[in-house]
Amino acid sequence: MRSKSIDTFCPVGPWVVPKQFIPDPHQLDISLSVNGQIRQKSRTAHLIFSIPQTIEYITKHFTLLPGDIIATGTPEGIGAIKAGDTVEASISNIGTLVNQIVREQ
């Protein structure tokens, strides 16, 4: 839990695309690179649970409200990052998020 629950973690944006603009959420290419080198490359078709299954499970335990974001996990290929690294995450038909890793002073 410690490695996933730190202030500034889970960046999203610079915009969130509403579901009506994504014809099939199970047919999106996803990738992540660190300093220009691909570390993760997959498709949402490879999710263990479909989007409807995920929503069904979550709503048995929590109330979802408009604007809530569900994080579905990550494909294989995770690894350490360090201050100075540039991380680029892309999802087809949605966009690319680029962040530089900085050490908090």
TrEMBL record:
Gene3D superfamilies in the record: Fumarylacetoacetase-like, C-terminal domain
Entry keyword Iron-sulfur: no
GO molecular function, one term: acetylpyruvate hydrolase activity
InterPro entries according to UniProt: Fumarylacetoacetase-like_C, Fumarylacetoacetase_C_sf
Keywords: Metal-binding
Sequence ranges assigned to domain Fumarylacetoacetase-like C-terminal in this UniProt record: 2-102
Keyword Transcription: no
Coiled coil: none
The protein, known as: Fumarylacetoacetase-like C-terminal domain-containing protein
Organism: marine sediment metagenome
